[in-house]
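General statements about sequence and structure are easier to judge against a single worked case. No coordinates are needed to read the tokens, only the vocabulary itself. The sequence in question and its structure tokens are set out directly beneath this paragraph.
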Amino acid sequence: MKRSLGRAAVAVGAGAAAAGIAVAPAAANPSTVWTVSPSPAGFTAVNSGNVVLVTGVPMTCTASGASGTLTGGSGNPAEVGSIRAATIGTGTSPCSSLLGNFTITPSTPWSVVAQDHHPSTGVTTGYVDDINARVSVGACVFTMAGKASSSYTNSTGVLSVANAPGELTVTWASNCGTLITTATKPTFKGNYTVRVTGTDTIPTITGTNP
């Protein structure tokens, strides 16, 4: 097992580098009023492409989703919505890794937080906050918590999530050896297509500074 974990660790650098996110330049006048249309908007989100989680070993998930409500808000940063349920991997499509299949159990709610809105592109940048999840592979079990940087594009309804190093941390680990410890800084990357629940309508998030 020690040799297998050692080989897996070599792959971490490449996986973590792939989890970067392009950051749009900050708006000249940071938004303080956030409007969601329609409002409030119950939403569902489904991954478009694979989701990658690196926590000492890269994991690939082909099925992921979330649901919640977008409400708008005020301030900067501002909570503009809540994720009430989330799945990362399923019983029929589990997350896979060099060590075998992982089970990821999110603990919600998570918060959708907005920081900058860019009118020319319709993109809002911010982060998903209050993330908490339990992860297991074999006898190795650990929990992770924190936030993940994100951007939302009004024209496509795509929420892109990719945390910066250190935004997520392992808060507890058991039977994971030296590969996954409380010093581990997980990285997460995934794109999600967001729609108003039960429709093909794309909700929009707009920030202004009156």
Q: What stands out?
A: The chain is about 10% helix and 55% strand. The two ends are 59 Å apart (CA to CA).
